[in-house]
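F.,

This is the one I mentioned.
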């Protein structure tokens, strides 16, 4: 990809950038949110047409090609948001659109199964073809997406943030698959924000910043601090200066709560915990062990069957989500697209989503457009949301900048308690630093924080106390001083500290 440029209305997403890929290599493409990584790869996959520049694949230059053309050229892409039909089986999803036929009206399922089983065996892709997608784990869904690309004949695989929602154990499995694919002369483009993973798995690293190609280096000849500096343009510090908490009154009290779950192991069974003013209580655990359900129960999004939830001494068990928010609780949801944003709304509309009725922003049913723009512009500057135009639709933003909208809206309101669920999932290193500092500052101002994160380093960095969940129960609560990754890991698998 040579001198590639891509312009959208008012935005130059990619600016004369370069990228090359060798056969059998794992090439990491990194940069901050909005740096142009995903846009660059969407052009390689035929989803976007470059405004300028050339794309040469296996010696031949290609212009104005479609996704179908890209697939025919041996290019496959696994998107950050999985493209699977939940009500269909794994097998049906893999062959969808590329069904082998026994006759005009009959699909050759047995032939497809044999072909797919070869990929499963050759690359250790451990999936069950008869399961419906709605019943499989996130790690299994990731492997289904990879098989989908291989089934379609891909020898160039683009993986956009493939480890963003995986557990450490699932990431280890995925990297074994990467290595076996590369050994078989498949080429992998690995888009990620996790620099330790990039150092572990890649042969080369290309860094982008503000749409431009900054540098391409051999992984073994660089370091995490060097890569971070290339990405952000300055030194980056992820170690938070976590001060001893000045603990005040109990804000949130969860008392022997039972909540139905999506699956048997995520049912909440007798969970009790407290969050005090001026402290961060972290909840650690492998995804799917009840973390989502307990947060949805507290915030009014899921019915509580038994037990009680009190905020500042008053029961909120039967309160609506709106009433709970207005009582002084902010909620950064784990899924920004389903619960945190309306992607079709503008940045400023999302930023005022829970404030538009306030006198400063509206009069009766009339919105004060100038005041809304002023309010949004202030938050955009404070939280470094890019692009900075408050009237741009949120659907045009990268994942990290979309997350910043949610963070800005929830942290800027005068809440007594912030519930932050996976606040840095899928965001870049500069944004991670900023979000962690924001949570730490809120604590220092006397706000209570309930933090849910699958990132143990994040939990240890920010939390004053750490509760561990396993199969819908709390297996232990540790003070930060006594917590280690080993102790937490044992509790996360149902063991004792």
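My design for it:
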């Amino acid at each position: 990809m040579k001198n590639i440029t891509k312009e959208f209305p008012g935005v130059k997403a990619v600016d004369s950038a370069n990228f090359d890929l060798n056969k059998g290599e794992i090439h990491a493409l990194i940069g901050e949110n909005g740096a142009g990584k995903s846009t660059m790869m969407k052009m390689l996959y035929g989803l976007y047409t470059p405004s300028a520049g050339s794309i040469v694949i296996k010696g031949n230059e290609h212009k104005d090609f479609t996704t179908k053309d890209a697939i025919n050229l041996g290019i496959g892409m696994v998107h950050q948001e999985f493209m699977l039909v939940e009500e269909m089986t794994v097998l049906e999803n893999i062959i969808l659109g590329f069904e082998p036929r026994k006759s005009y009206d009959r699909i050759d399922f047995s032939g497809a199964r044999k072909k797919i089983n070869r990929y499963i065996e050759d690359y250790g892709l451990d999936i069950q073809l008869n399961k419906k997608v709605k019943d499989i784990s996130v790690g299994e869904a990731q492997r289904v997406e990879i098989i989908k690309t291989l089934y379609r004949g891909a020898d160039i695989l683009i993986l956009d943030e493939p480890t963003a929602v995986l557990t450490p154990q699932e990431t280890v499995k995925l990297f074994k698959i990467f290595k076996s694919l590369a050994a078989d002369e498949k080429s992998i483009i690995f888009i990620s924000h996790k620099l330790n993973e990039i150092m572990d798995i890649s042969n080369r690293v290309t860094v982008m910043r503000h749409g431009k190609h900054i540098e391409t280096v051999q992984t073994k000849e660089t370091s995490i601090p060097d890569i971070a500096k290339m990405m952000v343009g300055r030194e980056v510090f992820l170690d938070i200066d976590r001060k001893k908490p000045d603990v005040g009154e109990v804000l949130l009290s969860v008392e022997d709560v039972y909540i139905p779950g999506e699956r048997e192991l995520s049912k909440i069974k007798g969970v009790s915990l407290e969050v005090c003013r001026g402290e961060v209580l972290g909840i650690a655990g492998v995804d799917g062990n009840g973390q989502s359900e307990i947060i949805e129960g507290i915030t009014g999004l899921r019915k509580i069957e038994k037990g009680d939830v009190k905020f500042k001494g008053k029961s909120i068990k039967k309160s609506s989500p709106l009433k709970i928010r207005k009582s002084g609780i902010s909620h950064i949801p784990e899924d920004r697209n389903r619960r945190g944003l309306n992607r079709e709304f503008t940045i400023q509309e999302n930023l005022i989503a829970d404030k538009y009725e306030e006198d400063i922003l509206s009069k009766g049913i009339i919105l004060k457009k100038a005041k809304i723009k002023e309010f949004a512009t202030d938050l955009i500057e404070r939280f470094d949301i890019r692009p900075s135009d408050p009237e741009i639709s949120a659907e045009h933003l990268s994942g990290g900048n979309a997350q910043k909208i949610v963070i800005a809206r929830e942290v800027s309101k005068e809440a007594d308690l912030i519930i932050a669920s996976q606040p840095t999932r899928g965001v870049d290193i500069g944004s991670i630093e900023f979000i962690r500092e924001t949570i730490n500052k809120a604590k220092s101002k006397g706000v209570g924080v309930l933090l849910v994160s699958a990132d143990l380093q994040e939990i240890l960095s920010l939390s004053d106390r750490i509760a561990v969940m396993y199969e819908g129960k709390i297996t232990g609560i540790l003070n930060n001083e006594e917590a280690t990754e080993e102790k937490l890991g044992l509790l996360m698998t149902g063991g004792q500290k």
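The chain has 17 helices and 24 strands.

Talk soon.
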